Amino acid sequence: MAALLTALSLDIGEVIAVDALDSKLELARQWGAGAAYTPEQVAEQGIKATHVIECAGHPRAFETAFKATAVGGRTVTIGLPAPTALSEISPLTITAEARTIIGSYLGSAVPARDIPRYADLWREGKLPVERLISSRIRLDQINEAMDQLADGLAIRQVIMFDEEEA
Q1: Ordered DSSP codes for 25-48
Q2: Cβ(28)–Cβ(36) under 8 Å?
Q3: Over 90: is that where the pLDDT of 12 sits?
Q4: ∠ CA(53), CA(117), CA(152), 5° rounding?
Q5: What is the mean pLDDT of residues 145-151?
Q6: Considering only CA atoms, which of 105, 109, 100, 52 is closest in space to residue 80?
Q7: What distance in Å separates the CA atoms of residue 132 and residue 154, rounded to the nearest whole number?
Q8: How many other β-carbons are positioned within 10 Å of the β-carbon of residue 156?
Q9: I need a labelling partner for 52 at 20 to 30 A (CA). Which of 8, 104, 153, 165 fits?
Q10: How many DSSP H helices and E strands does the chain contain?
Q11: Structural element, H or E, at residue 24
């Protein structure tokens, strides 16, 4: 969802969201995604894009993202999979279709350059990062909050240390 908001804030053209959860697809549409699909729909319809960002951190999500990358396109992988996770992609496809795969850790930001830019986008109302907060929790709710994250039911959760604020 953070990648969606950032792409929309940069006004780069149509942004397509892909997620396995209908609730997140609906939220992506509400936030401005031009289209929203499940991974199965992307495969069935042969949807391709020049820039595809994978955020799930799952080998199958990475493979789906790569397959949805157009000839000459770029797949950016942001999600952090388990250290033992492996994906299977064709090296021939990378070469023959001139595709690029890039890893991005924490947005690969250059803080001195990027944070002021993001702050300006936020001030202009173009990057509403507060939308990413799906809930506010107390510290004693941390286990349930982690379960929600693991199940894909939360976006970002903020721990409130003042009992009245949670």
Answers
A1: HHHHHHHT-SEEE-HHHHHHHT--
A2: yes
A3: no
A4: 35
A5: 89
A6: 105
A7: 9
A8: 14
A9: 153
A10: 7, 7
A11: helix 22-31
The amino acid sitting at 138 is R
Q: Which of 81, 69, 4, 77 is nearest to 43 (CA)?
A: 69
CA 61-65-66 angle, to 5 degrees, is 120
> Letter for the amino acid at 58?
H
Q: What CA–CA distances, in Å, run from 84 to 24, 64, 66, 104, 152?
A: 27, 19, 19, 19, 21
Q: Which two tokens stand for residue 83?
A: 């250290």
Give residue 106's region: left, alpha or beta (phi > 0; psi -120 to 50): left
Given a cut of 70, whether residue 113 has pLDDT beyond it is yes
Tens digits of per-residue pLDDT, 21-71?
999 999 999 999 999 999 999 999 999 999 999 998 899 999 999 999 999
pLDDT grade, residue 163 (50/70/90)? low
Q: How far apart are CA 67 and CA 58, in angstroms?
A: 14
Among positive and negative, which fits the CA dihedral 32, 33, 35, 39?
Answer: negative
Stronger pLDDT, 151 or 72, i.e. the higher one:
72
E-assigned strands of 39-98? 49-54, 69-77
Q: Is 115 helix (H, G, I), strand (E, B) or coil?
A: helix
**22-31 helix and 2-9 helix, angle to the nearest 10 degrees:** 20
